[in-house]
UniProtKB/TrEMBL annotation:
Signal peptide (from-to): none
Xref: PANTHER family: GALACTOKINASE-RELATED, MEVALONATE KINASE/GALACTOKINASE
GO cellular component terms attached to this protein's record: cytosol
EC number assigned by the record: 2.7.1.6
GO MF annotations in UniProt: ATP binding; galactokinase activity
Domain GHMP kinase C-terminal positions: 440-511
Organism whose genome encodes this protein: Lentinula raphanica
Top EC class for this record: transferase
GO biological process terms held by the UniProt record: galactose metabolic process
Name this polypeptide is given: Galactokinase
One Pfam short name: GalKase_gal_bdg
Catalysed reaction, written as an equation: alpha-D-galactose + ATP = alpha-D-galactose 1-phosphate + ADP + H(+)
């Protein structure tokens, strides 16, 4: 399976460019970062790590509920050139980093991790257990993502002793920040890879001398690393950035464990990304948006499990996917249950969610569907202390009403849409005789339904995204939806190959913030994308 393969390390540039499977001129970008590294630091880098952004075709906000999603890596990526600092000055702290970015607005940062020593075992035996690396989670800072990747390498590989190398790094990237294309995951994956490579840890498991690190191990590390920036995201972005393959989308499933398989996209389908130009940083708004949704879906899972009389430990944070599995009698050791069975159970869940509505209330409007903290605790069947411990002690959230019903309704229906989307793509491949336009229409409809659900039930859209998807539909998109966390960022539209130019022209002429943009400036905000390959490393001689 794709997830178990090792991270590709190239030593030959034509193999590297051939592997990317994209139409962009990668050579220019790779050369320029290597040359710039040479200019700034006086030597060639030892490695360049590449991690792409991703577009999610369908399956929004369901990865942390452990339901499968369908993203693809995009051609836009982050490159991190890294080199050991030679003749490190005596006063250089172990593992110190000089981090520069080719974008001028991101200024040079110098930092070093501090070993945190704690008495363990006995008074005289002081063991190095952890490293301290301050990460600012209150504001969007570019180096936070570099540090997040580095921190994971420190605690996984240097906690038992040994010193990380002092390094210089140079970062460049074409994934716009805060746009829903996973620039943050690409930065964290790229940084994790770069620090693994320079410290000689790519060839080995956590003990440093086992088999090569697999893609799924890198995903796991990158997910844990990104949580340090303050967002409890699922694993979609990191998995897409690491495991994707050219020309296909990737069905990523998280239950019973991470697995991924390529899903061929039907011929004639072009995916166009359009940036609403509303910047949404999920780390900054986490307590009212992203992290709140994570908590709402988790509590919804417990309330449903209780209502369905499923066995759940008091301290367990059961997810909606696990509720579905337990209800269906799925045996985890055997793997994920067959799709038809999963779809059936999801249908049943769409009826069961009635039990998430507020108790004893006369519901006449959607606004009244939320429950208060007290109601939510009572519905969970836990004591206030237990509830606090399990659901609130690890995360900060802010709300007067918690929308358990609406969130669960979105999650179950979106999970079904992902399975249907995948089924349509697989069927189109195995019976190419079906009308290509009918196939695209089926996919488009699922994308439109997803947008409505994200907007009305999950409330992760915004007026500009709604407007942009509508304009896209009017301009000929077969389906259009927000992609990524939402609350701003990009849309993805499915457009028939023949219509691409006229689509882009119409959207550019209609969406207010695009007026006056031309040439490169316009290509930056609205562009067709092709699925690209996942993360890799280039090693210099
Ligand atoms: C962000 C997160 C992902 C996922 C999406 C929403 O991109 O990082 O894990 O939850 O939002 O689908």
């Amino acid at each position: 399976m794709a997830a178990e393969q090792p991270i590709p390390v190239y030593t030959n540039l034509s193999d590297l460019y051939g592997s990317l499977g994209t139409s962009l001129n990668h050579a220019e970008k790779w050369n320029s970062v290597a040359e710039e590294f040479q200019r700034r630091f006086g030597r060639t880098p030892a490695y360049i790590a590449r991690a792409p952004g991703r577009v999610n075709l369908i399956g929004e906000h369901i990865d942390y509920c452990l339901f499968g999603v369908l993203p693809a890596a995009i051609e836009r990526d982050i490159l991190i050139a890294i080199g050991r600092r030679p003749n490190a000055l005596a006063e250089d702290a172990p593992g110190s980093v000089v981090a520069e970015n080719m974008q001028k607005k991101y200024t040079r940062q110098v930092f070093a991790p501090a070993p945190r020593r704690r008495a363990s075992v006995s008074e005289d035996e002081i063991r190095l257990e952890e490293w301290q690396l301050d990460i600012n989670t209150k504001e969007l800072r570019w180096e936070s993502y570099v540090k997040a990747g580095y921190y994971g390498v420190l605690i996984n590989y240097f906690s038992g002793g040994g010193n990380p190398a002092p390094v210089d790094i140079l970062v460049t990237g074409t994934v716009p920040a805060g746009s829903g294309l996973s620039s943050s995951a690409a930065m964290v994956v790229g940084s994790t890879l770069a620090f693994l490579a320079i410290n000689g840890k790519l060839d080995g498991n956590f003990t440093g001398n086992g088999p090569k690190i697999s893609k799924s191990q890198l995903v796991e590390m990158a997910v844990a690393n990104e949580k340090r920036v303050g967002v409890n995201s699922g694993g979609m972005d990191q998995a897409a950035s690491v495991i994707s393959v050219p020309s296909s989308a990737l069905y990523i499933s998280f239950f019973p464990e991470l697995s991924a398989s390529a899903v061929p996209l039907p011929p004639g389908a072009v995916f166009i990304i359009a940036n609403s130009l509303v910047v949404s940083d999920k780390a900054v708004t986490a307590k009212r948006n992203y992290n709140l949704r994570v908590v709402e879906t988790l509590v919804a899972a417990r309330v449903l499990a209780r209502h369905l009389e499923l066995k759940v430990g008091n301290t367990e944070r059961i997810t909606l996917r696990e509720v579905v599995g337990r209800l269906a009698g799925e045996v985890e050791e055997v793997g994920e249950m067959p799709v038809e069975w999963l779809l059936e159970t999801l249908k049943r869940m769409e009826r069961e969610i009635e039990h998430l509505k507020p108790p004893n209330s006369d519901i006449s409007s959607e606004a009244q569907l939320g429950v208060t903290m007290e109601e939510m605790i009572a519905m969970s069947g836990l004591t206030a202390e237990e509830f606090q411990d399990v659901y609130l002690s690890w995360v900060e959230v802010e709300a007067t009403h918690f929308q358990l019903y609406k969130r669960a309704k979105h999650v179950f229906s979106e999970a079904s849409r992902v399975l249907q989307y995948r089924r349509v793509c697989l069927a189109a491949e195995s019976s190419p005789s079906s009308s290509p336009m009918d196939v695209l229409k089926e996919l488009g409809q699922l994308m439109d339904e997803s947008q409505t659900s994200c907007n009305e039930l999950f409330e992760c859209s915004c007026p500009e995204l709604n407007q942009l998807t509508q304009i896209s539909k009017d301009a000929g998109a077969i389906g259009s939806r927000l992609t990524g966390a939402g609350w701003g960022g990009c849309t993805v539209s499915l457009v028939a190959e023949d219509n691409v130019d006229s689509f882009i022209e119409k959207v550019s002429a209609t969406y207010g913030p695009y007026k006056g943009l031309q040439g490169e400036a316009l290509d930056e905000v609205i562009f067709a994308t092709k699925p690209s390959s996942g993360a890799c490393v280039y090693k210099f001689d």
